[in-house]
Amino acid sequence: MRATLEAIALHPVKSTGVRPVQRATVEGWGLRGDRRWMVVDATGECLTAREHHGLFALTADTPDTDPDLPGALRINAPGHPTLDLEVPHADPEPVTVHGRPLTGRDAGAAATSWLRGALGRDDVRLVHVADPRPLNPAHANPGEATAFADGYPVTLASAASLRRLRDWVTETALERGEEPVDVTATRFRPNLLVDGDLEPFEEDAWARVTVGAVTFRVVKPVDRCVMTTIDPTTLASGHEPIRTLAHHRRWDGATWFAVQLVPEVVGEVRVGDEVLPGR
């Protein structure tokens, strides 16, 4: 069996545009520069593209996605000037990710003004992670944590599984007399996309996976929500891929695609690295 790392993606600000990179540094919290910033509402709860599709139209970069950046973060939005920011030093404050508590630091008045103009909302702010959130002890070891990710530090998807899903989506569309939806990996926002001599969905059974010199523990599959039904380019909502996943990949009251990982060592991963799954 031979498999390789096909693509790496970072999401500097949670739920904004995907930023492809050729290499990434793996830290205990996940890939460096991934989901270290987040948009919150007036209650301190994260705002995602599920609630506000316009977040997908924002692109954010850090030195991990653009080494020539002058600061810690650059955000762009159509029709708005570029915003450059440094890591804030405000006092930590409570914030939540889908109700799970951790702490963040407010990015300041300029970031608030820019973000409210870009999103057309007067109740949002930008925060940077202050302290990591401990992982669910049912699936984690003491000391393991993440930043603003929904569940665990890193997500991995298989191109073989994606191809099988696309076939299923096409079959569903033809049965219903609909135009097939082009389901891309971007819908699922994985950090790591692997391809090669793999069976569809075999990653569900992996216990560990080594990418280059970095080994990850596979925690569980990723349960999927309606955010995957938003076209990341047009921002239009539809039924796929959740409709088809619910038919083929539904158990425990949820639909599943890709897997959650926890790094066991730190290091660097690069596109083209060898991928070695283990049970």
From TrEMBL:
Residues annotated as domain MOSC: 124-278
InterPro entries: MoCF_Sase_C, MOCOS_middle, Pyrv_Knase-like_insert_dom_sf
PANTHER family for this protein: MITOCHONDRIAL AMIDOXIME REDUCING COMPONENT 1 (PTHR14237:SF19), MOLYBDOPTERIN COFACTOR SULFURASE MOSC (PTHR14237)
Protein name: MOSC domain-containing protein
